[in-house]
UniProtKB/TrEMBL annotation:
CDD domains: NMNAT (cd02165). Pathway: Cofactor biosynthesis; NAD(+) biosynthesis; deamido-NAD(+) from nicotinate D-ribonucleotide: step 1/1. GO terms for molecular function: nicotinate-nucleotide adenylyltransferase activity. Its EC number is 2.7.7.18. It catalyses: nicotinate beta-D-ribonucleotide + ATP + H(+) = deamido-NAD(+) + diphosphate. InterPro entries: Cyt_trans-like, NadD/NMNAT, Rossmann-like_a/b/a_fold. The gene is nadD. Residues 7-187 form the Cytidyltransferase-like domain. It comes from the Bacteria. Pfam families: CTP_transf_like. This is Probable nicotinate-nucleotide adenylyltransferase.
Length: 213
């Protein structure tokens, strides 16, 4: 049995099928032993999520309740300070030891901004990067040095992710899901249906809490 685990961070305001379905499919395609969903603590200078940290956490719990592969990680939510992915992955590596293969999952849109993340190069020291497809975004980097950075680490072999502890970038062949939390919030504000876009218990909770009106 595979031991490759993957961490999937995001604001999850709210969590939706565009988050859940690609990573579930990915887990089957490449063999993941665990998907750790980690809602982030949004820095004060960024636009704040509409839902509170507790509400975002609760929506994740509802979304993964019937999915044994998924677990929730509250470490970033529990911090008073906004946290950087680089720092979180360093901690995670420390906990898991040097040999365990670890991966961090991002959508295609996040790959484009990845080189602006704090200490982005060190993230690959501690984990692989797995990129899921998302409609509307190119798979090439804008700046040549960032494209070079990507090309140097790219692998087409998912086996590399199991055989090495960190350092590779894998572009997963997951289907497109044209869903975003922004679209969901807008639709809910307009009183439009979002049933197809997220698990029913999450939508029921949103309605019960009067979120995104
Ligand atoms: P918002 O619309 O509020 O910006 P979002 O729907 O993009 O939110 P986030 O919580 O910001 O969701 O994203 C967390 C991670 O999930 C990111 O790596 C993002 O690229 C990925 N992601 C979100 N939606 C999709 C999707 N439809 N397909 C693939 N990846 C996605």
């Amino acid at each position: 049995m595979t031991k490759l685990q993957a961490l999937f961070g995001g604001t999850f305001d709210p969590i939706h099928y565009g988050h859940l379905k690609p990573v579930e499919i990915l887990a089957n395609q490449i063999g993941l032993s665990r998907i750790i969903i980690m809602p982030n603590n949004v820095p004060p200078h960024r636009p704040q999520p509409e839902a509170t940290s507790d509400q975002r956490k609760h929506m994740v719990e509802l979304a993964i309740a019937d999915k044994p592969l998924f677990v929730l990680d509250e470490r970033e939510l529990r911090r008073d300070m906004p946290s950087y992915t680089a720092q979180t992955l360093q901690e995670w590596r420390h906990e898991e030891g040097p040999e365990t293969p670890l991966a961090f999952i991002i959508g295609q849109d996040s790959l484009l901004t990845f080189p602006t993340w704090h200490q982005y190069e060190t993230i690959l020291d501690n984990a692989h990067l797995i990129v899921t497809r998302r409609p509307g975004y190119p798979l090439t980097m804008q700046q040549p040095e960032h494209q070079q950075w990507l090309d140097d680490r790219l692998t087409l072999r998912s086996e590399d992710l199991h055989e090495q502890p960190a350092g590779k970038i894998f572009l997963a062949e997951t289907p497109w899901f044209d869903i975003s939390a922004t679209i969901i919030r807008e639709r809910l504000q307009n009183g439009e249906s979002c049933e197809e876009m997220m698990p029913a218990p999450v939508l029921a909770y949103i309605m019960q809490q009067g979120l995104y009106r």
